[in-house]
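Researcher: Next sequence.
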Amino acid sequence: MKKTFLALAVAVFATPQLAAAHDVWLTIGRAEDGLHAIVNYGHPHDRPPALADKIFDFAALTGEERVDLMGGLTHKQTAAAIIVESCGFNDRGHSLVAVSYDNGYWVKSPSGSYRNATIRSVPDAQDSLWSVKFAKAITGRGAPWGTVLGTPLEIVPLSDPAAAKPGDSLRVRVLFQGKPLANIAVERTDGTTPIKEEDIPRFMTDSDGIASVPIAGNGPHLLAIDYKVSPSGTASFAKTDLYNATFAFTAGERN
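Model: Next structure:
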């Protein structure tokens, strides 16, 4: 059996300021030793490392199987990262990879700084929230791109994103708790190029939770959404719940 390994690069430092508003997204690549999936945290212009112990689900899906990439993996600690290897999974370039990331509770202290804490610890906090993030990426054409994983917030393409070409518009549905989410902005970047917040292209969902996102060109695309819910489901710890979801793909991929 052809062996495939997925590498998850994580370090042990996170920037507290605005950490709750950062995205989590997957970068998929290939090398001689197989498939590499890197969990990115932050934004292209602000890249503090992710934290491995905040990942609570990591899986790959093909048309035939779901492979749990959390349990039974080999973790290798290096000076700067944790490498997670899966030597029994044959990707074949047709997989959906997904990560769920609990970024925990955050408060804005009276001084204006952000801390990874709850309002029970900082009762005079200016603001507080719980932050959770869900990232998906496909490894090529024919991946189960339309699979609904059932995460609280999710982006679901309505056609194969890898087959999209420049000039096409990719229709995607945004789901919150399994229901279409209307009037939410879907951001489009390439996941690597720094871009000012006000210059990020955004496309609104309609009453059915569907947004039409123009394909910018052949190459990597990253779609991202944020959604706040108040009051928090854990009101004794935070005022607001902040959900983030991303979907990464490479447009114009060959079969």
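Model: Residues 111 and 170 are 44 Å apart (CA to CA). The first strand starts at residue 23 and ends at 31.
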